[in-house]
Amino acid sequence: xxxxxxxxxxxxxxxxxxxxxxxxxxxxxxxxxxxxxxxxxxxxxxxxxxxxxxxxxxxxxxxxxxxxxxxxxxxxxxxxxxxxxxxxxxxxxxxxxxxxxxxxxxxxxxxxxxxxxxxxxxxxxxxxxxxxxxxxxxxxxxxxxxxxxxxxxxxxxxxxxxxxxxxxxxxxxxxxxxxxxxxxxxxxxxxxxxxxxxxxxxxxxxxxxxxxxxxxxxxxxxxxxxxxxxxxxxxxxxxxxxxxxxxxxxxxxxxxxxxxxxxxx
Length: 265
Ligand code: BJW
What we know:
By secondary structure, the protein is of the alpha/beta class. The protein folds into two domains: 1-39 and 87-127 and 173-259, TPP-binding domain (Rossmann fold); 41-84 and 130-165, SIR2/SIRT2 'Small Domain', CATH 3.30.1600.10. It is built from eleven helices and nine strands. The strands form two sheets. It has a six-stranded parallel β-sheet with strand order 3-2-1-7-8-9, sandwiched between helices. The protein is elongated. The chain starts with 13 loop residues before the first helix and ends in a 7-residue tail after the last helix. The model has no long low-confidence stretch (mean pLDDT 95). Bound molecules: ligand BJW. Residues 31-33, 36-37, 42-45, 48, 59, 109, 111, 127, 165-171, 194-196, 198-200, 220-222, 224, 237-238 line the site of ligand BJW.
């Protein structure tokens, strides 16, 4: 990791790079792979979280009801790890892209807050945030930027707080689904970065873009279901591929015309 991939090495036609750079609206769907180079583990595959931990006990409402202490111990550990981690070049390129496109959204399945820390503003957190806690009784949400101390943490009302994240079998917030679907439908380009694209409804978002006539550009360490319909699949580490892609985009005529003061090297 950390290799400086040459922009010219990307397997992308000049025509496709021009279309990507010349688009007016774009979005990025990200998954755990975008934060892997920050040292935050992914869920599936070798070394993934679900290899070591049982998702039924840790990421379902039933698991929380049965053993909130255990679930909170896991989230506290992850809060500590995430706080120590820093955004990587992939997060920073995505934040830069927001300044290029007239309309741009980051649709993230991650709960780590890395996109915001890298400078992205328009972020839709599909599966919630580890930095928000929600009262199990009245749904009141509080924000935090430090790991919880006492576990399980309690609300002022005396009830238990839970992480404000979406577990298996729970619906995503209606507002979030609405915002993400709208962004997907209006995107001329969607980048799909570091997700296995097996968890729904998030995995349906690039299909919405594709069916609405937009381009789907995948960046992943390995093939996924998205590979079968993407307009291009760039295989490799997001922290290497995205900076190389961004460099190629900055050299296109449409980019230089629009941003004459951004260097194209
Ligand atoms: C790199 C890289 C590098 C690595 N560079 N790439 C059957 C049974 C049970 C449920 C279902 C079922 N069929 C369908 C469902 C629904 C279920 C679902 O989709 N399940 C499938 C798994 C089958 N979905 C849900 O339950 C959702 N809710 C729902 O559908 O509600 C409906 C409803 C309506 C009305 C009433 C009630 C319900 C909710 C899903 C919530 C997912 N939650 C989690 C945990 C969140 C909190 C937390 O983090 O603690 O979200 S699970 C986990 O998976 C997490 C992730 O956001 C999500 C997606 O994973 P992601 O991000 O794709 O990571 P990985 O690890 O899978 O992939 C990483 C990728 O990166 C890989 O491809 C690598 O190659 C790549 N990579 N390094 C580039 N450096």
